[in-house]
Specification:
Elements lengths: L1 E5 L3 H12 L3 E6 L2 H7 L5 E4 L5 H6 L7 E4 L4 H19 L6 E5 L3 H8 L2 H6 L3 E3 L2 H12 L6 E4 L4 E7 L10 E2 H7 L6 E6 L13 E2 L4 E7 L4 H7 L12 E5 L3 H12 L3 E6 L2 H8 L9 E5 L5 H6 L7 E4 L4 H13 L4 E6 L3 H8 L4 E4 H13 L7 E3 L7 E6 L11 H4 L6 E8 L5 E4 L12 E6 L4 H7 L3
Parallel strand pairs: 1-2, 1-4, 2-3, 4-5, 5-6, 13-14, 13-16, 14-15, 16-17, 17-18
Antiparallel strand pairs: 7-8, 8-12, 9-11, 10-12, 19-20, 20-23, 21-22, 21-23
Amino acid sequence: MRVIIGGGGRVGSGLASALRSEDKEVVLVDNNARAVKNSQGMDILVLHGDVTDRSKFIEAGIEYSQVYVAATNSDEKNILSCALAKHVHSEKSKGKGELMTICRVRNPKFVEEARSGKLSKWAGVDHVIHPVDGAIERLMSGLKSSSLTEVIPFEADAYIVELDVRSEAGGVVHRTLRESGAKVEGGMPLLVGLKRDGMQGRVPNADDQLLPNDRVAIATAGEASFNRILRIFGHDPIDFPDRPKVVIFGADLIGIRLAKAWLDANGTVTVVERDLEKANNLAGSDIGNRNGIEIIHGDHLDKDLLSEIEISSHDIAISALDDDHASIAATLLASDMGVERTGLIMYDADLVDVVRRMGITFSVDRKRVAIDSILSRIHSELPGPYAVLSSVPDVVGICLPVNSNVKFAGKTIAEAGLPDWCKVAFIQRQNIHDEWETMRPSSTKTLLEGDRLTIFLPPDRVDDLEKKFKV
């Protein structure tokens, strides 16, 4: 597969790296000389130029490509480049083959255009990536626990959680996973990724030993299982209230989406916005008129104001400001004034780990969510999510269907003959109401036609596994 990426920023370069790890052929186009220089060590073709320049698509070999991803910082340029890419591909290939276009956007108006099916008609955009809702989902799941470094939802109440192994985890440290299974009450959680300092991340096997400070990725069903996982690996969980009180700093797009999400989750919400017009707009909206929300016009760094709204009585403080540093300052102040859990959705990926060390409970890299969403679209023949483990590099998770073409439908997992370099994390099956349910895999579990499996593996093996599943 040949993929052209327009834009060599964080999303474009991160996507290129992920695709190269799968041995995909990648061409990256950017008009910023620094971005071009930074991408030249990735074993990809890098072109200096504008993504609205027809000649650059010709130079990139558009007629031989299957996917074009527009990932610049401009919605309008991304949309225009998708339309141009479609036209040049059709012209150069003389109508042979199809080009999938994936467009990253920020403006919710374009998202609505895509949902209505109109954007594909007037702009040639097949898929729109707007990672805000996905980032909010990860943030909310992460804040419901403590000490988790990452939470990746995998649909049907399935999750991958990532955390460090502490020396206090007496049942698992300095033991193999096989030995720990006999020591841990209720059985050992299912590990799908293991990373140790100085070593490559990998899918672990039963004979791998866990050491303090290892980073592990665990497959689990339901948020209720998070606290048990934390205890097993040496962390002290904190109970989460049934109706959390949440304060949100900022009433822009992310702040409004966060307010709606927490109201939908049976929380009460206080929004603090220093811009009077934005505060009034939210107060007059459908969300602002719901029960359980209060909109305050004022400065989120005003200690008197925060004391007046009794910020210490809130369970969670989340900053949704446009500037990462301003958001960090707001959440740290809230923490100093007694809020136990704090959260951020970050623009700068380099700050995600930094803020954790500063005491902020959970942060989400929205660019990481964007990359995962784009990869899911590129692997559009798959029935579910595609995720790159953020803290366990060199391991990815993909969802594969058990269809009528595979030879192991009706056989157990042990009989399916799956390679030893991969591990099944979830079996998902539709119930009589056509709803997906998640089951923990075991060697004796029978795989039925129509099931879908979430499997973790090295990225350079994705094509091999897809061939086995005939997708």
